[in-house]
Amino acid sequence: MVAAIVAFCVGVLFCLLLTRPAIVVLKRLGWSQFVRADGPQTHLVKKGTPTKGGLVFGAGTVVAYAVAHAVTGEAVTTSAVLVLLAMVGMGAVGFVDDYLKTHHQNSAGLPERAKIVGQLLVIALLVPVALWGADRAGRSLVSSSITFVGDVELLDLARWGPVVAVVLALAWYGFLSIGTTNGVNIVDGADGLLAGCAISSLSAYALMLVFQAQNSCSGAGGAGCFDTVHPQDLAVVTCALLGNLVGFLWWSCYPARIFMGDTGSLGIGGFLVALAVLSRTELLLPVIGVIYVMVTSSVLIQRYYFRFTGGKRFFKMAPLHHHFELSGWSESTVTIRFWLISAFGAITAIMIFYSTWLARTGSAGP
User: Fold this and answer.
1) Which of 44, 202, 256, 297 could form a cystine bridge with 191, CB 3.0-4.6 A?
2) Count of CB atoms situated within 10 Å of the CB of 158
3) Is 97 known as a binding-site position?
4) pTM of the full predicted structure?
């Protein structure tokens, strides 16, 4: 628990103190935001704001995690390293996308297919490590089942044999990763919007992981214990990013002095999906990230409604936050209300998590 507190505090201080000089450097490099002319007109003033801020809190997360371990002397674990690699890998894809946007000064960036190929490459490199990785006691890092709050027996992929199980696992992790990373990316469209929503999501995971560590099957065990490997260290790395986003939000809230860019948003998405898989809460992720599901759904609805109606629009503009801005809501109002929805999802997920544990232990009331 001490390591988690240290990671959080170091993360906050890192971004609070180093984001300002990073803004200066990014401006000198010419890495500034391009603003779409067909978007909300109130966003035109954002042109020239430095982007790629994900580099700051991405580096800060690694630093905060390392400092926490240096201070406490606790061992670094494979699970936490995988989460960091997922963040770095997806963030690298986002960096290429951001670079093309700032270099060419348009919103095109990486073609959609190229971005997905890049994300799939990251998944292809990390999933085998997760599938065949194990702790010192020989426990697998990930489950052979699709998970909710622990394994879902009906969704045990191992029942189809090892070869089919690996193929199905790759397909499932690919779907979950692409959906999550791109869903998180779409939310990043207003000052401080994604940072605030991600703080809620990560706070939920930090609490659940601490609870899993206290009720781990590798410890005292008992009814309802959790099979999650390295839950305590997963909580540490979660607090490292959580602290950095708190510090980053100081600079990115309205009016933003810096944007995280796809470097940050895809990195956060990769981090969240790795947490979901390694904490064995994959089907709980859509509840924790309800805001990502809502905003992504608005884009899909808009796209297919436009296609099937011959050019009509369901929303004034997609993603959903831009629809509300064009409906007369201020950007700050949209951001705060979306934060509230995100907090609602996080709190609901925690209640589901705890209620499920109570039911498994037989402690739930009538």
Assistant:
1) 256
2) 14
3) no
4) 0.93
